[in-house]
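Backbones bend. Our protein:
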Amino acid sequence: MRYSSQIRSARALLGWSQDKLARVAGIGLTTLQRVEQNEGLVKGNFSTILKIQKALEEAGISFMDNEAGEIGVHLRTKRGSDRSAQKSKKDRRDE
């Protein structure tokens, strides 16, 4: 289960507006606003929630919750690709 606070936090980590998340997830802005406005477990159409989750996960968000009742989100970084991009720039300068 996802919590509305997780969705809001994930957007904040990505620096995304509600409008951007709605566009990326392929849902209406008012639908996302309705999902985010409630506290606690996300309420809404199951397929809509899956679209939101998929969009955030593809952007690098990892959702977490555990048996102790702790919830949160993490943002995965792309360190490997960042290093190779930096190396490519350096190699081009040396040519």
Confidence is low (pLDDT under 50) at residues 80-95. Residues 4-94 form a domain with the 434 Repressor (Amino-terminal Domain) fold (CATH 1.10.260.40). The beta strands are 61-65, 71-75.
